[in-house]
Specification:
This protein is an alpha/beta fold and 202 residues long. The protein is built from 7 helices and 9 strands. It has one domain: 3-Layer(aba) Sandwich (Rossmann fold). GO terms for molecular function: ATP binding; GMP kinase activity.
Length: 202
């Protein structure tokens, strides 16, 4: 990835598909990739570190930043917590020519498309619906009511795959992560998406 050739990559997909896990793998194994750290008003989950996985803030601080125009995108997710992408770090990374990636939800991806249409939008899909349900239930971080809300949302989110430039199936974290970084590298060097057509569209 050469200087001044970076292109913002926006990774999105349905709830529980493993976006955060893929992003964590990229962070650990591909340190040349700059990953945006989102801000949220929800409480940390077990193992999450403030400033690494998310910036955890209260609602008042989130609203202060939102009103000041400090978010590239923001949304209320599942009718509960607020999430947002701080604008300035993203712009600084792109200006420095670093390969930059946002890992956000579908609402956020749509907002970024309005402000940065030149970005590359990648949809992470599960191998199957049953596997998505298994992953959501297996992580055990939501109540039964919250899981039902997330699964209802996920059905709508899966239908949005056609809005994206590229589709990657998260059948295995390492494979999906390496495919994503390979895509970023080829896009940076060629400036096009030719080597990577859409996958699994049916």
């Amino acid at each position: 990835m050469t200087e001044h050739s970076s292109r913002l990559v926006v990774l999105a997909g349905p709830t529980a598909v493993g976006k955060g896990t893929v992003a964590a793998y990229v962070r650990e194994h591909f340190p040349e990739v700059w990953l945006s750290v989102s801000m949220t008003t929800r409480a940390p989950r077990p193992g999450e570190v403030d400033g690494v996985h998310y910036h955890f803030v209260d609602d008042a601080e989130f609203e202060r930043l939102r009103e000041a125009g400090e978010f590239l995108e923001w949304a209320v997710v599942h009718g509960r917590a607020k999430y947002g992408t701080p604008r300035r770090p993203v712009e600084a990374a792109i200006a420095a020519g670093r390969p930059a990636m946002l890992e956000i939800d579908l609402q956020g991806a749509r907002q970024v498309r309005q402000t940065m249409p030149e970005a590359l939008f990648v949809f992470l899909e599960p191998p199957s619906w049953d596997e998505l349900v298994r992953r959501l239930v297996g992580r055990g971080t939501e109540t039964e009511e919250e899981r039902e809300v997330r699964l209802t949302t996920a059905r709508h989110e899966l239908a949005a795959a056609r809005e994206f430039d590229v589709i990657i199936t998260n059948d295995e974290v390492r494979h999906a992560s390496e495919e994503l970084v390979s895509l970023m590298r080829s896009t940076a060097s060629t400036g096009s998406l030719a080597p990577h057509p859409r996958r699994n569209e049916n």
